[in-house]
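hey so u asked for the seq, here:
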Amino acid sequence: MNIYAVRLITFSPTHTSKQVGEAIVRGTGLSEITQTDLTLHPAGEPEIPENTLTVIAVPVYGGRVAPLALERMKDLRTSGAPAVLAVVYGNRAYEKALAELDAFVSERGFKVIAGATFVGEHSYSTERNPIAAGRPDTDDLQFAEAFGTKIRAKIEAATGKDTLYAVDVRRIQRPRQPFLPLFRFLRKVVKLRKSGVPMPRVPETDATLCNHCGYCVLHCPAGAIEKGDECNTVAEKCIRCCACVKGCPQKARIFDTPFAALLSDCFKRQKEDKIIL
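ran it, structure tokens below
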């Protein structure tokens, strides 16, 4: 089957999903590439031609696809264009995120021919509480490129649209998860919630460090930070992606959640990326 164009669609506040998506596209070797970054804006040109490969890479928040990513893809439509789905999670669990994304795009006319789960640095990761810090790393991106090469081979082996077969992403191999760290995490979460300790809803800003450069305003996916009022965050809008924390040039923002220490302590073992095609 001849497919010459690829459309890369990403939602990537901290750039992990975008790196994975770009690596997959590189691996396909397709030269006609259109990129759509949903991080700050909805998808333009929502109709995807059926002879265009669509690669979608999005982050997982709390075991689900980032809701804002789905909102910004809601107008996508196609009549059978092949799609590759990648969800990027912070080394804990992606739960049903890949199946959720599959159902979402299938309803919009896509044929899912491959799927993947990748590990990326958790939004809550810090130097004190590292959670999959530095991922996707070189090995992850090489794995993503190799995945793209396999996708290209699958497309070329198909004699037509009918023989470019869909996959059931629910059958993807799950990464190994030792029981004891998971049990310890769940027990501590229950204890934390019963303790009544207030959970932070938004990042905090050190007003002595903030110079009102506006970086956080420009890079907040949800528009939760207003120009001129950079030391505050609108809780009702904040999605806790921590793009403002990780990107602040002055290191003036922090998100001090007790979940960071729990995740860092209980999920030290790095999980492997998995694919199905």
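Residues 90 and 181 are 15 Å apart (CA to CA). The helical segments are 16-28, 67-73, 97-106, 138-157, 179-195, 215-219, 243-247, 258-266.
lmk if thats what u needed
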